[in-house]
Amino acid sequence: MQPAERRSDKNKTKSEPWRDLNAEAYVRIENITKRFGDFTAVNNVSLKIYKGEIFCLLGGSGCGKSTLLRMMAGFEEPTSGAIYLDGQDMAGIPPYQRPVNMMFQSYALFPHMTVEKNIAFGLEQEKGLSRADIATRVTDILEIVKLTGFAVRKPHQLSGGQRQRVALARSLVKRPKLLLLDEPLGALDKKLREATQFELINIQETLGVTFIVVTHDQEEAMTLASRIGVMNRGEIVQIGTPTEIYEFPMTKFVADFIGSVNMFEGRLVEDLPDRARIQSDELGGVVYIDHGISSAPGAVVWAAVRPEKINILRAPPADTRENCVKGVVKEIAYMGDVSIYLVKIETGKTVRVTLPNVERLSDDERIQWDETVWLSWHASSPVVVTQ
Amino acid sequence: MTYGAARIGSRATPGRLGPLWTFLFRYGPPRWTEYVLRNWAGQRLVIALPYLWLLIFFVVPFLIVLKISFAEFSPLGRPPYEPVFRWLDEGALQIKLLIGSYQYLFNEPLYVSSWGYSLMVAAVSTLMCLCLGYPMAYAIARSTPTYRNVFLMLVILPFWTSFLLRVYAWIGLLKTDGVINNVLLALGIVHEPITMMYTSFAVYIGIVYSYLPFMILPLYSNLEKHDLTLLEAASDLGAGPVRAFMRVTMPLSFPGIVAGSLLVFIPAVGEYVIPSLLGRTDQLMIAKLLSDEFFLNRDWPKASAVAIAMLLLLVVPIMIFQHFQNKELQAARK
């Protein structure tokens, strides 16, 4: 395993219970399988989620992430396997008796009730709560989600972002042990989504609830998650912190699904503890890597290089140990903060490179279409995946 | 309406509509054509047609009936009656409204009891339709699409047979030596036949049977639109199936309940055929009374007064109905 990197300054103080072998998992999913007729939606998934985590299930549509979430909420019964919440087996317990709440993708707000009534609904189902208690808790949660003036509005009188916050408040007001969020930000526009992501993290930290978030949006997963579980065809293909997932993908699928990547197929010709070489016909040369792969010599592997880790040079690099390939710029896309270059190398493969637009350049200084360039990247940049 | 005018203008290009039109279009008057095209054409004309229909075939006859209801009973038993409006020789307009028929309507015990009985029968039948129809509509709305169409077909199927025939068929089932009694006797459940014909029970059976589809269809169309994730949300928030139904499904289906109830209640109040064929002979319903007044007593003013009173009695529920329908439409638009 590669060494793990810390996410950001903010989370440095945060513990990482998944590294501790003795830590008690809060949600334990054991060999869960769900079949609908012939179709296997979730295939033998095992997961451990710890208290206070924001765990993201990330995957494309139809990968089984929502089914997994619905099984945790109790809307679907697993075909086989078990779910334990805080040590308690959840099998056969209906959704209305689980200490779990869910925020629905469509928000599922009751259209005939005001914001206040929507939020109070869950509390009214609990025994031993007086009207006054309910009222205070509703007021408190409205304050947390910043909707204080909106208590008597109906859902159709609210904007998308406000509805999203009502849905969040409604699922949080019951103080669940575990909150399941199904594409929580899917219906919001980009700016609002970014703002809400940070708000969600703040609320989660304030209340100390464990979040499990389902999303197809890798950016959303990267911002929110303490750990990400990438799913494909009903299986979890990799679990790790956002950094691990992005920097050290274990399979071609993960490398390709999270962000964009240039993949060079090749054969392992040298594999030593401190360096390795891959002979790649796709690249038309050798990929140098500054760490060992510990795989069979001659095995077919893929070297994955992220577009932002490649540099564009106008002359061949002096250092011959650098990975380097010659090509012609075919497309340039100016995105504002970065520019994307599609460079056709001599073997005919197109390589994607992103460079930040640090300086304002004049047209002469800027790299132009059909210019011959050299692409280079450091030996630490490629990630080698074997499947 | 500039929008309409622009459209009409572009369509009415000269040449396509013949030389006369070309002439008129190019050289102006008569100006009223332009006015008609601008203001009446399109949308307004479409709306105007049903209104015109209602005016000729509903409002005018209604006014005639209203006028007759204020007239004096003539022993001949048919019009013409004394006119309501009359110019006197002194140049004064005489308006003569005899409210005797209406007074009779609300004082005569026979009428009062008929009113009461009609309303009671209608209300009880509506309630029974609701109790039977709601579960059926719910089941249809929640069934798989293939079955759903079959079930809906089955609900509508009775309409393919004559209404009168179906009510007559109930006589064969309910009468003393009818199918039901024979089966019960043969099974030994009863030892002597039960009297079912010519009772209120038979009327309820007839009305509920005949009007059940009118309850099921609006309820179905409401329930079918429900977002099932709302029920999941309710369940997730701790509400069991019964509570979820009471707090979510039921309130959301309220417009459907109102629509279905009014569609049953309104015709049930004025039901004529079913009580005449199956019902009690000692207790009339108001529609039967109206027809007797008209055909047997030949008392047109009283019959008209009954008709007007019945109409007013039903207009109020219809207006409530429309109010709820508008509300539902508005909610659906949002």
Report on this model:
The complex is a heterodimer of chains A (387) and B (334). With 387 residues, chain A is of the alpha+beta class. Chain A has two domains: 9-99 and 176-253, 3-Layer(aba) Sandwich (Rossmann fold); 260-385, Nucleic acid-binding proteins (OB fold (Dihydrolipoamide Acetyltransferase, E2P), Beta Barrel), CATH 2.40.50. Chain A has nine helices and 20 strands. In chain A, the strands form four sheets. In chain A, strands 6-7-8-3-9-10 form a six-stranded mixed β-sheet, sandwiched between helices. Chain A starts with 8 loop residues before the first helix and ends with a strand. The model of chain A is unreliable at 1-13 (pLDDT under 50). Chain B has 334 residues and is an all-alpha fold. Chain B has two domains: 2-95, no CATH class; 100-333, MetI-like (MetI-like fold, Orthogonal Bundle). Chain B is built from 16 helices and two strands. Chain B has helices at residues 2-11, 19-27, 32-39, 43-69, 100-107, 109-142, 145-156, 163-174, 179-187, 200-223, 228-236, 241-252, 254-269, 273-278, 286-295, 300-333; strands spanning 85-87, 93-95. In chain B, helix 5 (100-107) crosses helix 16 (300-333). Chain B is extended and about 80 Å long. Classes of the chains: A alpha+beta (387), B mainly alpha (334). Chain A binds chain B through residues 73-75, 94-97, 100-102, 104, 106, 108-112, 121-122, 125-126, 156, 170-171, 174, and chain B through 227, 229-230, 232-240, 243-244, 247-248, 251-252, 331, 334.
Summarize the structure.
The complex is a heterodimer of chains A (387) and B (334). By secondary structure, chain A is of the alpha+beta class. Chain A has helices at residues 9-12, 65-73, 115-124, 131-144, 160-172, 190-207, 218-224, 242-247, 252-257, and strands at residues 27-36, 39-49, 54-58, 80-85, 88-89, 100-103, 178-182, 210-215, 227-232, 235-240, 262-271, 276-280, 285-289, 300-305, 311-313, 323-334, 338-345, 350-356, 372-377, 383-385.
